[in-house]
């Protein structure tokens, strides 16, 4: 039982009993009492298990990282404060002035911005290419190229990268191969089994799954690379907070169930949209009319994910009417929530591009991306059907 402290200023001992709590404890402490200088030395030297200062590590980050490590077949993963913090820690931790990156030209918008606007100021250059075109990637390589960075399935056009070709190319040239596995998740694809050197996640999305946490994860196959990423993240303060880690870990308990159900729903929704007269085009990696259908099959098998894109009549008026017509579906530029969310890339992730540049990517004003959730599929289809049928 608790001892009453002699003053309110003294820390209150935690009541411990013989029964173990079932829920994961949340430990927000910033600092840890190692008892003595020798005790602190033991922790810093790795001779004793423990923590020192939360920016350098805490139990909730370790519990979460260990779980994602298990999903990815990895060890020593690091939790970062966001998916972008993970991308940043990997790039800045592993590269330096004069290095060059070749990256997919359809990466997450902020990743593209980091590569093209920010990194050049620190002397790191990037060339963007089509990650599905091995020849183009090879042509973009320079003697200074130290990293190839891709997402297996691109956003929002859901193109599939030539991952095996890229992995071989990177290995032949001694270049680090980095895969942002946010979209596919380890339930569908484990990049380390296919030649990746580093795997990145926005935990914010499907892994945490409830739109109430912003976190990232990064892990490298090589222990020296892991240390470099960890040191950069700790120095720059890119690590994640205990509460966010606690929430994300809670989300993971249902991840497999959520993913499987959302993917099953996505397949049914893609089939429904494909037959609907108001829909001009459906993009889903599991469909035989997908431009990379063979590659999707080879890399993902039946695990073709929860993201479906489609186009209606290419006008803003139709897009507004459709989004408003989906009255119960959240219209929001994110993905991976437990419920279905609808996004319109021309007015969100791709708004900075000219209409011509968007057209070149196949993104018209009528382009929508659906992050399919776990609700009953009949309900979801009927809600979308009503909105489609109301279009002029
Ligand atoms: C969202 C996202 C990110 C960035 O993650 P945040 O947690 O929002 O910082 C990076 N990569 C991909 C593929 C994403 O979808």
TrEMBL record:
Keywords: Lyase, Pyridoxal phosphate. The keyword Lyase applies. GO terms for molecular function: cysteine-S-conjugate beta-lyase activity; pyridoxal phosphate binding. Pfam families: Cys_Met_Meta_PP. CDD domains: CGS_like (cd00614). GO terms for cellular component: cytoplasm. GO terms for biological process: transsulfuration. The modification N6-(pyridoxal phosphate)lysine is found at residue 205. The keyword Iron does not apply. InterPro entries: Cys/Met-Metab_PyrdxlP-dep_enz (IPR000277), PyrdxlP-dep_Trfase (IPR015424), PyrdxlP-dep_Trfase_major (IPR015421), PyrdxlP-dep_Trfase_small (IPR015422). Gene3D superfamilies: Aspartate Aminotransferase, domain 1, Type I PLP-dependent aspartate aminotransferase-like (Major domain). Its cofactor is pyridoxal 5'-phosphate. Residues 1-22 are annotated as: Disordered. Belongs to the trans-sulfuration enzymes family. This is Cystathionine gamma-synthase. It comes from Actibacterium mucosum KCTC 23349.
